[in-house]
Amino acid sequence: MDLEILKFLAAPFAASLILTGIHSYLGVHVVERGVIFVDLSLAQIAALGASIAILLPFTGGDPHGPNVYWISLFFTFIGAAVFSTIRVRRARIPQEAIIGICYAVASAASILAMSKATSESEHLKEMLVGNILAVSWEEVFHTAWLYGIIGVFHYVFRKKFLAISMDHAAAEASGMSVRFWDFLFYASFGFVVTSSVSIAGVLLVFCYLIVPSVAAMLYADRIGPRLAIGWSMGTIVSALGIYLSVKLDLPTGATMVCTFGLVLIVMAAVRPLLFRGARAEAPVPTPVAVGERR
Question: Is the pTM here over 0.90, yes or no?
Answer without folding.
Answer: no
